[in-house]
Amino acid sequence: MALSKIDISKAGVTGTLPVANGGTALTSGFVNGITQAQIWRVTANFTGDAQPIASNLEAVDTNSPGAVGSAMTESSGIFTFPSTGIWLITANGEFYYDGDSRYNQMIIEVTTNNASYSEAAKNSAGIAHSESTHTYSSASCQHLLDVTDTANVKVRFTVSVSNNSTTTGGESTYNRTHFTFVRIGDT
User: Fold this and answer.
1) Cα 91 to chain center, whole Å?
2) Are 86 and 186 in contact (CB under 8 A)?
3) What pLDDT is stored for residue 32 in this prediction?
4) Is 33-185 a CATH 2.60.120.40 domain?
5) For residue 48, what are the contacts with CB-CB under 8 A and spacing of at least 6?
6) Contact predicate 89/143, CB 8 Å
7) What is the DSSP letter of 72?
8) What are the extents of the domains in the chain?
9) Residue 183 CA from chain centroid, whole number
């Protein structure tokens, strides 16, 4: 791999910046950085399983939220991407119960044909009741998704719990169960 050097002294910094394959900062993807990023959340608690989580979803809108570029869209729990590219998707679930729940799973499901979904990422957290009130746990998972076609490549989020009395936490003023979408590169 050949490296070239870029003179960055005009920016008030002395030295050089190596760039792979003889490129420049303009041809190596450094100009725009992340062009799209957004967080969505569940705004109300729900109990039991959800496949998908299809209601009480909103783009984060409190506490000076940051977002970059065009927004994700959501309908009945199905998320559509605003552009093609490689997207980093993170799902975080908060669970609580006043008893034991062997597993509480946060699942990212994807489709490439706008019809059939498969599990792309899944993580579990159990609850062993330890006090007289709620005991909490959380699970998170990530997936890098190659969105080659915004009409067909979509994502949804599922919760599966072993004890159907387990609650998934939601809140409209801060993030409990939430999902992050960041476009990190071209497809």
Assistant:
1) 5
2) yes
3) 61
4) yes
5) 161, 164, 165, 166
6) yes
7) P
8) 1-31, 33-185
9) 10
- Return the bridge partners of 85, or none: 147
Q: Say what the pLDDT of residue 27 is.
A: 46
pLDDT along the chain (187 residues), means of 10: 48 49 46 86 98 98 92 98 97 96 97 98 93 91 98 98 97 98 94
- Ramachandran assignment for 31, one of left (phi > 0), alpha (psi -120 to 50 degrees), beta (any other): alpha
Amino acid at site 59 = A
Picking from 59, 42, 37, 19, the residue whose alpha carbon sits closest to that of residue 94 is: 42
Residue with tokens 């990023």: 37
Of residues 82, 95, 85, the one with CA closest to residue 125: 95
What's the token pair of residue 93? 């679930």
Q: Is the dihedral of CA 28, 182, 82, 61 positive or negative?
A: negative
